[in-house]
């Protein structure tokens, strides 16, 4: 089996490198490299640069404004973007709602929604989780009651990532309490500035404002904003989640994190010797590198499978579990390599605090804590194991 890239794929990789070298502004890559929380303007500028090139929605076919790339091309693009320190593409429009509209949307929704995502112009948020409805998503209670040609929505969503920046939000709402909980759920689109919607920040352990609570108080939403059929939203919800899980794997991000960990381990000293020469530390690096190599192949294998069957399947749970484990191990190794200089949070640093590490590491502790989330969001890793045992092992 030949695992090397073809000459065409290598040429494609070079094309991406050239594009990034000429189109990724330095102030954007500097912001990403420093590890600070990015403002909307940075994401927006980068999304629009990719949008103009037709490279924002990497998994979309050409007919909807995507590049029509093969799985290998998408993989190479991700890896090159991580290497160049681009912002991650905010996935809610490009990688979640986009595929949903292509599969379940009507012609009007396709014509209105897809171009505004592909250009990077409109930013979406994901309104799935509620207090008491995370792992057990089907127990969600946000109610949408039909009133003429509108739904009236009341309830609350939580953990809404970057909702403070969003223009619109896609939500799972309860339209019926008859039968099994899964049977009364619908998929509804809303402008986030509709009267009655309020977005409130949740502060995370590292001090960042990445997630929010969203409250709905008699919000009137046109019936035409329903995607698919009323009470059939559960099928759409599951379809979207398989796309979300493929993207959480973050192989490119982990490859870059591995380079950085090795760099740190060369710079930091233990007992007067570079840390990378410490056999215990080197063994941990080796183990995570082997896992990452296996992940690369698994990721490609699943991208090909998804292309063949038209959509990703439940096996994306493997990618989600392994991808987040590798990512968290790398963040832990970076923190351990820095030792005491990884401890201060950016806000606690003062001019008199001399515990600074090498360049670009002052946000290391914050990044470590922030990444604890990856084994929880997109469906916790325990839930992914449940999915695998049911769907793939038949247990
Ligand atoms: C940083 C962050 C960003 C997020 N962004 C979004 C977003 O943009 N939009 C959105 O809708 N949601 C978002 N989420 C929510 C996320 O999907 C949920 O947190 C996740 O599904 C877990 O739900 P929960 O928090 O209610 O925990 P719970 O469901 O209460 O789970 C608590 C613990 O119990 C375990 N557990 C629960 N049930 C089982 C079971 N049956 N078997 C084994 N173990 C179980 C879980 O694994 C977990 O460890 C985000 C979460 C985080 C942390």
Automatic annotation (TrEMBL):
Species of provenance: Haematobacter massiliensis
Residues annotated as domain Acyl-CoA dehydrogenase/oxidase C-terminal: 231-392
Annotated family: Belongs to the acyl-CoA dehydrogenase family.
GO molecular function: flavin adenine dinucleotide binding; oxidoreductase activity, acting on the CH-CH group of donors
Domain Acyl-CoA dehydrogenase/oxidase N-terminal: 6-121
Keyword Flavoprotein included in the entry's annotation: yes
Domain Acyl-CoA oxidase/dehydrogenase middle stretches: 125-219
Taxonomy, superkingdom: Bacteria
Names of required cofactors: FAD
PANTHER family to which the protein is assigned, alphabetical: ACYL-COA DEHYDROGENASE, ACYL-COA DEHYDROGENASE FADE29
SUPFAM superfamilies, A to Z: Acyl-CoA dehydrogenase C-terminal domain-like, Acyl-CoA dehydrogenase NM domain-like
One GO cellular component, as annotated: plasma membrane
UniProt keyword annotations, A-Z: FAD, Flavoprotein, Oxidoreductase
Protein name: Acyl-CoA dehydrogenase
């Amino acid at each position: 089996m030949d695992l090397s890239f073809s000459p065409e794929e290598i040429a494609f990789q070079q094309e991406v490198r050239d594009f990034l070298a000429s189109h990724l502004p330095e102030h954007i890559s500097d912001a990403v490299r420093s590890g600070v929380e990015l403002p909307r303007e940075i994401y927006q500028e980068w999304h629009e640069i990719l949008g103009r090139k037709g490279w924002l929605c990497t998994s979309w076919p050409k007919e909807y404004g995507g590049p029509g790339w093969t799985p290998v091309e998408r993989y190479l693009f991700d890896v090159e973007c991580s290497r160049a320190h681009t912002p991650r593409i905010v996935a809610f429009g490009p990688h979640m709602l986009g595929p949903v509209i292509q599969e379940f949307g009507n012609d009007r929704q396709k014509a209105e929604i897809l171009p505004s995502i592909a250009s990077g112009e409109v930013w979406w948020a994901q309104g799935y989780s509620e207090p008491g409805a995370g792992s057990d998503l089907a127990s969600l209670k946000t109610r949408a009651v039909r009133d003429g040609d509108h739904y009236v929505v009341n309830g609350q969503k939580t953990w809404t990532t970057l909702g403070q920046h969003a223009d619109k939000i896609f939500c799972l709402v309860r339209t019926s309490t008859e039968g099994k909980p899964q049977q009364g759920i619908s998929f509804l689109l809303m402008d986030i500035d509709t009267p009655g919607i309020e977005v409130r920040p949740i502060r995370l352990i590292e001090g960042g404002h990445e997630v929010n609570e969203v409250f709905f108080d008699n919000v009137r939403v046109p019936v035409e904003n329903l995607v698919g059929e009323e009470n059939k939203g559960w099928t759409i919800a599951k379809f979207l989640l398989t796309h979300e899980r493929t993207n959480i794997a973050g192989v490119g991000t982990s490859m870059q994190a591995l380079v950085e960990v090795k760099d740190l381990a060369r710079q930091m000293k233990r007992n007067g010797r570079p840390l990378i020469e410490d056999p215990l530390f080197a063994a941990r690096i080796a183990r995570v590198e082997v896992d990452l190599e296996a992940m690369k192949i698994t990721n490609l294998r699943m991208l090909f499978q998804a292309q063949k069957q038209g959509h990703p399947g439940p096996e994306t749970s493997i990618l989600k579990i392994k991808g987040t484990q590798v990512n968290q191990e790398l963040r832990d190794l970076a923190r351990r390599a820095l030792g005491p200089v990884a401890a201060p949070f950016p806000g606690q640093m003062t001019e008199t605090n001399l515990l600074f590490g090498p360049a670009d590491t002052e946000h290391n502790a914050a990044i470590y804590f922030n990444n604890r989330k990856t084994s929880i969001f997109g469906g916790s890793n325990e839930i992914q194991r449940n999915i695998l045992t049911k769907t793939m092992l038949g247990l």
